[in-house]
């Protein structure tokens, strides 16, 4: 699929399921153009944006903030711990309030899956919602930066062999990526502990032992072990997990010379991947973080364009 610099127009960005293939390709293409120095769209009026992070974040929160500042948006400080959330205010009432103050875009990370549905279905709230991750549901901006990274490497998605490996059931990264990668024609495998695999993945790819496919992969996409979402279901010692499912130096040597390693980060070093491999030649983990700024600029431009068309 050729990438073209199409202008994308969005009302919200909440799930990869709601994006067409053309919109995905347009956003990636715009992210690449911005990275290559293309000027961002100029704003025709003051635009307020707030980042509401109810779960911890470094990459998503800070790269949205950098993207917002590069675009000239007015970023409103919002800290959950000093807000009226601590007096029991709900997410809905928090967004209703910011909307009433004139905030036009809210980037939100929250532990509740599908938290955004109530916000985008509200007849009162007019702010656009950008999902920065909903529990183990979706993480669309991460998925778009992952796709941008794969496209920069291979120039296509069709036929690219991708293995998503690790804590699948708890991963919004896996769920966002599996759907869109299949739609774009990639060949998908899943690997990792059986207890962190569920039937919902069957329609998108094959569950395999990492050692059975490692030599033929183009992309090994490792996932973080999400201890905070485990109810004691399938706990492993770090060493056991690393040896059975992680990227050891021995497995790294089995990868093709053209293969790449991805990880959304934060990385548990010596658990999902050997400490020394995080910045190895085949690793694109740092590049993913850099790409996050540009793809998030593209997302925000598309949202601003969508608001101008209303
Ligand atoms: N990849 C990712 O979402 O990282 P953060 O949790 O630091 O935002």
TrEMBL record:
Q: Its domain of life?
A: Bacteria
Q: Does the keyword Transferase apply?
A: yes
Statement: the UniProt record of this protein carries the keyword Transferase: yes
Annotated Aspartate/ornithine carbamoyltransferase carbamoyl-P binding domain ranges read 11-152
Originating gene: pyrB
Write out the residues that bind L-aspartate. 87, 172, 224
**Catalytic reactions on record:** carbamoyl phosphate + L-aspartate = N-carbamoyl-L-aspartate + phosphate + H(+)
Give GO MF terms, alphabetically: aspartate carbamoyltransferase activity
What role is this protein assigned? Catalyzes the condensation of carbamoyl phosphate and aspartate to form carbamoyl aspartate and inorganic phosphate, the committed step in the de novo pyrimidine nucleotide biosynthesis pathway.
Q: What keywords is this UniProt entry annotated with?
A: Pyrimidine biosynthesis, Transferase
Q: One short Pfam family name for this protein?
A: OTCace_N
Please give the name of this protein.
Aspartate carbamoyltransferase
Which PROSITE patterns does this entry report, sorted A to Z?
A: CARBAMOYLTRANSFERASE (PS00097)
Q: What is its EC number?
A: 2.1.3.2
Record-annotated Aspartate/ornithine carbamoyltransferase Asp/Orn-binding domain positions? 158-302
Q: How does it assemble?
A: Heterododecamer (2C3:3R2) of six catalytic PyrB chains organized as two trimers (C3), and six regulatory PyrI chains organized as three dimers (R2).
Q: Cross-referenced InterPro entries, in alphabetical order?
A: Asp/Orn_carbamoyltranf_P-bd, Asp/Orn_carbamoylTrfase, Asp/Orn_carbamoylTrfase_sf, Asp_carbamoyltransf, Asp_carbamoyltransf_Asp/Orn-bd
Instruction: Please give the pathway this protein is involved in.
Output: Pyrimidine metabolism; UMP biosynthesis via de novo pathway; (S)-dihydroorotate from bicarbonate: step 2/3
Please report which protein family the annotation says this sequence is part of: Belongs to the aspartate/ornithine carbamoyltransferase superfamily. ATCase family.
Residue positions binding carbamoyl phosphate = 59-60, 109, 139, 142, 265-266
NCBIfam families from the entry? asp_carb_tr (TIGR00670), PRK00856.1 (NF002032)
């Amino acid at each position: 699929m050729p990438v073209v610099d199409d202008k994308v127009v969005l009302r919200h960005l909440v799930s990869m399921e709601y994006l067409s293939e053309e919109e995905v390709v347009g956003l990636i293409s715009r992210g690449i153009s911005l990275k290559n120095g293309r000027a961002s769209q100029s704003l025709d009026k003051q635009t307020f944006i707030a980042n509401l992070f109810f779960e911890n974040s470094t990459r998503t929160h800070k790269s949205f903030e950098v993207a917002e500042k590069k675009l000239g948006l007015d970023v409103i400080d919002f800290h959950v711990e000093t807000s009226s959330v601590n007096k029991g205010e709900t997410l809905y009432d928090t967004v209703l309030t910011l909307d009433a103050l004139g905030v036009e875009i809210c980037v939100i990370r929250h532990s509740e899956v599908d938290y955004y549905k109530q916000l985008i279905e509200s007849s009162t709230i007019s702010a656009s919602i950008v999902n920065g991750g909903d529990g183990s549901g979706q993480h669309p901006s991460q998925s778009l930066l992952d796709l941008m990274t794969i496209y920069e490497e291979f120039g296509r998605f069709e036929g690219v062999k991708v293995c998503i490996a690790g804590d699948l059931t708890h991963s919004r990264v896996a769920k966002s990526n599996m759907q869109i990668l299949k739609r774009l024609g990639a060949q998908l495998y899943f690997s990792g502990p059986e207890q962190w695999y569920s039937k919902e993945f069957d329609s998108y790819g094959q569950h395999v032992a990492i050692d059975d496919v490692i030599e033929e992969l183009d992309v090994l996409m490792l996932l973080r072990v999400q201890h905070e979402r485990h109810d004691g279901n399938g706990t492993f010692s770090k060493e056991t997990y690393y040896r059975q499912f992680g990227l050891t130096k021995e497995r790294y040597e089995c990868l093709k010379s053209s293969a790449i390693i991805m990880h959304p980060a934060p990385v548990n070093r010596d658990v999902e991947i050997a400490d020394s491999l995080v910045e190895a030649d085949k690793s694109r983990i740092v590049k993913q973080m850099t790409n996050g700024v540009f793809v998030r600029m593209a997302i925000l431009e598309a949202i601003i364009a969508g608001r101008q068309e209303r």
